[in-house]
Design a protein that fits this description.
This protein is mainly alpha-helical. It is built from ten helices and no strands.
Length: about 200
Amino acid sequence: MPLAILLAAVAAISGFLIGYDTAVIAGALEFIAKDFALGEVAQGAIVTAILVGGLVGAVGGGPVARRLGQRPTLMITGAIFAVCAVGSALAIGPWDLGAWRFGLGLAVGSATMVAPLYVAETAPPRLRGALVSAIQLAITTGILVSYLVGYLFTGAGDWRMMLGLGAVPALLLLAGLVFLPESPRWLVMAGREADARR
């Protein structure tokens, strides 16, 4: 059942990205603070930027998905994840790092809102609950992997690699979405019943 496998992958990667990008700052912050000579307030701002972006992304993700469709919204979200992860890794100062982290927050909030909805509306009924639940498991996995990556690069103090590696699952998410259909429910709401039935 290729559709179910791809949906499971999208669910897992979406959740993984939410967890990874939110938590990876824990291992990187000490080295960022040293490189940019940051005080406690600036460090707090960089950590908080993703949470503020997440609030905006969660509020805005629903209306965007209703207008464009859930699959295109998730593709935009995946692109934001990838671009902002690379941007964070290449940041030359605290202000642009904070801006890239805010962008990641937009993607985190949007994915938190749209990914479970898309999976629930597109998955075969018998797998629906399991695949939506898999997103929660993947969030925890993403947090765990971010800590392991932080541990791996702590010796070198390579915070740029810690942040930049988030682009890899984002590109995988985009690749998986290319082969998936739009949510049948959204297609019906858009007046495309024949497409929805297919």
